[in-house]
Amino acid sequence: MMQILRHNVSTITLIRHGPPAVSLRQRISGHQFRQFVERYDAAKIEHRALPPRKVAQVIAQADRVFASNRPRATHTAELLGAPELHMIDDRFREIEFPVDFPRHFRFSALTWTVIALTLWRLGYSARCESFARAKQRARAAADVLESQTDEGSVVLVAHGGINRLIAKELRRRGWQGPRLPHSSHWGCTTYCR
Questions:
Q1: The whole model's pTM is what?
Q2: I want to staple 87 with a disulfide (CB 3.0 to 4.6 A). Which of 20, 27, 66, 131 is the partner?
Q3: Domain 11-192 = CATH 3.40.50.1240
């Protein structure tokens, strides 16, 4: 009788939080951007937002679920039905970017975010985490996730920016999956090894 060998596949799934209760469409002056980011960081998920069933199934089948310490990430994990969060950690928080701008310019919060991220990627990091430090933090986050795959499938509920950096690090280490994780709200991307 022929014996079939089963190969255990390690998986790490990165999920972006659901839509927060704070809108990026609101227009604000540059000097108000810092307060906007603080409100955004404190926000939970928009009360009418329903998670996709497929993403909830990923959480239901996970052996270990981790989350950023930001309310929008922990609330997303709760809405997805995570029975337990094995770790809530600051290392999984969103990337930090410059938030101090002149008062006489007024744009949407989304436009300010694009400007801030562009400046940040170009090396401007006054009063915030630098791009190099964010990459170091993503490496540390990947270490944590990778070390837990012996326990089974791992899911991280976090944010678009840090998920991209973690995905890049996982691929550098030989994990198979898309070059960029899904960046939409509730975006879910799995990496295997």
A1: 0.92
A2: 66
A3: yes
